[in-house]
């Protein structure tokens, strides 16, 4: 893969472009842009902003910071539109990338704040891992919001960055921390531009993995990651995420297994079973659980099935079940008991089980 030539007319290629989509971000934009100015990266840096029909003072704030940043040697490219309706985050990111020149892309959300060493440390990692998405650890604001999610983001092992890509949390390195080469981004393709309600980051992440991309995390807290009710992620329905996850599981994992067990005979396990294609459901040999009440029932009957007779899937005690497993249990809600069971069975993540919790 060759790096692109500058097609924007903005002069020589920058080493790194910070990609910043903006939509009604006046509450956070000053702090966000100040963090761009504070980067300790010594290479050439560019900020590419795309203003997606903001109706507040975001445009004025961007122009103010454009002068400050360019006075400090950071080139700034500003694009956008003022149509009545926004085009969405995927479109805005694609436009910001198209108008930019950087050999490497550093993604930033307008409500987040970078630590001064972010670009430098992620650039160093990206040079070493040219076909990977580079992430980092984060600090959540407010600190007590999404505690389980934040702990998951920060504590996944290097292997789990690839083995836990099917969970409800989404990408194992979150979008506002992404950093990658432009060449690799171009190889994977553009973000989905379906607009509100489309999980463009998850869809890009899956395509990245399909094309053999890696995942690497810089183990430093390099981003203040804000949680608030106006975030675009809240527009994506849970059922949309669920559908994409099931499809990716069926595409990437289930073809390798002749049969498998769903670990959880409760609501989530049964929902997964019902969501599978008929071919995948035929591979389910059992549910397993440790709840005696569920085990005592003996089987799960898929009442909505059109098959005759209706399928009845055995419900076994964990000790009687056999791998491979699709695990539909949230690990940190079990007080450590679940992890102890995994260790006792000597199972290897990715080979003997995957998480779908």
Tag the structure with descriptive keywords:
357 residues; single chain; 22% strand
Biggest sheet, strands in spatial order?
Answer: 11-12-10-9-13-14
Helix content: 25-40%
Give the class from helix and strand content and strand pairing: alpha/beta
Note poorly predicted spans.
1-8
Written as H for each helix and E for each strand, in order along the chain, the element string is: EHEHEHEEHEHHEHHEHEHHEHEEEHE
Summarize the structure.
This protein is α/β, with parallel strands linked by helices and 357 residues long.
What report would you give on this structure?
The protein has 357 residues and is α/β, with parallel strands linked by helices. The chain has a 6-stranded mixed beta sheet. It has a 5-stranded mixed beta sheet with strand order 3-2-1-4-7, with helices on both faces. The protein has a 3-stranded mixed beta sheet with strand order 5-8-6. The longest helix has 15 residues, at 238-252. The chain is elongated. Helix 1 (29-37) links the parallel strand 1 and strand 2. The chain has helices at residues 29-37, 58-71, 89-98, 118-128, 147-155, 160-163, 182-188, 200-210, 238-252, 267-275, 278-281, 292-297, 337-345; strands at 16-22, 45-52, 75-81, 104-107, 113-114, 132-141, 179-181, 214-226, 260-263, 284-289, 299-301, 312-317, 325-327, 353-355.
């Amino acid at each position: 893969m060759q790096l692109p030539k500058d097609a924007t007319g903005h002069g020589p290629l920058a080493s790194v472009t910070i990609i910043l989509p903006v939509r009604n971000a006046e509450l956070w934009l000053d702090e966000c842009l100040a963090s761009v100015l504070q980067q300790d990266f010594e290479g050439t840096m560019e900020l590419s902003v795309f203003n997606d029909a903001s109706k507040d003072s975001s445009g004025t704030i961007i122009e103010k910071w454009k002068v400050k940043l360019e006075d400090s040697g950071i080139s700034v490219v500003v694009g956008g539109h003022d149509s009545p309706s926004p085009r969405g985050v995927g479109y805005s990111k694609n436009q910001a990338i198209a108008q930019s020149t950087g050999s490497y892309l550093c993604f930033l959300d307008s409500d987040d704040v970078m630590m001064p060493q972010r670009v430098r440390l992620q650039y160093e990692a990206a040079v070493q891992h040219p076909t990977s998405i580079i992430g980092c650890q984060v600090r959540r604001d407010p600190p007590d919001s999404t505690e389980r999610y934040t702990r998951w983001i920060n504590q996944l092992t290097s292997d789990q960055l690839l083995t836990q890509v099917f969970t409800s949390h989404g990408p194992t390195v979150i979008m506002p921390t992404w950093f990658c080469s432009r060449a690799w981004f171009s190889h994977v393709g553009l973000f989905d531009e379906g607009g509100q309600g489309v999980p463009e980051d998850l869809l890009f992440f899956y395509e990245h993995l399909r094309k053999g991309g890696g995942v690497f995390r810089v183990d430093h807290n390099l981003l203040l990651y804000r949680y608030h009710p106006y975030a675009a992620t809240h527009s994506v329905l849970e059922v949309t995420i669920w559908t994409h996850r099931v499809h990716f599981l069926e595409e990437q994992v289930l073809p390798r297994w002749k049969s498998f067990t769903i670990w959880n005979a409760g609501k989530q396990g049964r929902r997964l079973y019902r969501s599978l294609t008929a071919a995948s459901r035929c591979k389910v040999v059992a549910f397993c659980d440790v709840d005696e009440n569920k085990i005592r029932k003996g089987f799960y009957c898929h009442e909505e099935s059109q098959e005759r007779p209706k399928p009845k899937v055995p419900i076994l005690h964990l000790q009687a079940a056999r791998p491979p497993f699709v695990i539909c249990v949230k690990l940190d809600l079990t007080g450590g008991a679940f992890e102890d069971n995994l260790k006792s069975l000597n199972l290897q993540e990715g080979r003997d089980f995957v998480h779908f919790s």
